[in-house]
Amino acid sequence: MDFAQVRYFNAVARHGSFSAAAKALGITQPGLTKAVRRLEASLDCTLFVRLPRGVALTQQGDALLEHASRLEVQLEDARKQVRAVARGAVGELRIGAGPSWLGRALPRVVAELTAEYPRLSFHVVGGYNSVLMEALSSGDLDLVVSALPDRSPAGLSAIPLTTDTISVVARRGHPLRTKRRPQPFSTLDYPWVLPGRDVLLRSRLEALFHVAGLEPPAAKIESDSISFIAGVLRKSDMLSFATSRVLPTEMYGVEPLPIPGLTMSRSAGILSRAEAGITPAGQAFIEAIRKLAKELGAN
Length: 299
What we know:
Elements: H1 3-15, H2 18-25, H3 29-43, E1 48-50, E2 55-57, H4 59-87, E3 91-97, H5 99-103, H6 106-116, E4 120-126, H7 129-137, E5 143-147, E6 156-171, E7 192-194, H8 200-211, E8 219-222, H9 226-234, E9 240-243, H10 247-250, E10 254-256, E11 263-273, H11 280-296
Parallel strand pairs: 3-4, 3-5, 7-8
Antiparallel strand pairs: 1-2, 5-11, 6-9, 6-10, 6-11
Helix pairs in contact: 1-2, 1-3, 1-4, 2-3, 6-11
């Protein structure tokens, strides 16, 4: 099994058709079919089954895809690193950033690095952990700066940078602020606006409610936009759960509610693919974000 065969196999699996995969690869369909057949012969199995329109993976094909897709990403990482080492900090660096990093730290770091390295460009994507980690694992991003999960997903490694606090948040004039010591159950009297269920922030909120012996609140409104959530909170008595770092920059007019049992600390840092080498551009970014993280510290 050689890499060309792996690449061809991935293309057919991705497109669900030999003709579509051949067109995307820029080769003939008969040539692609022969290459996949040779791969099947070397593995002594059938990887695809013909359908009325296109093909589908067999059980053996599914098993190979898990490794083959990762191998293609790793080889592309290696090619980029070799080219980058030869040329220095040049090319495009694809960065994913959580909400608190996107609005506060990342603009400064990226501005400084583009001035220091004129041949380096950036593609920056904002979002929550689940989406960013998936894009990192698939090779669509080079590095992610965000809250760190309790355990790094398989294939990813983490560099801790800072700690911050996440808590229930609401508008400044919210009725719960008039209570002397509001309890977790008090928050269930109000509707919540929250990110999706697959977002780490929401999972942590639900865990805190379970620890308190309560059913977590259902989301009256779901949104992955920090600015939208902040806008809803400012105009209503709804509640949400957010990191202290986004309040001054992304959620002005919204403040923490000090509710015992519904506040916790978390770590944030840099995530990368464990088996991918860090290019000179990536290393320059890591050093710059580490330097800024020392200034930010914990809050």
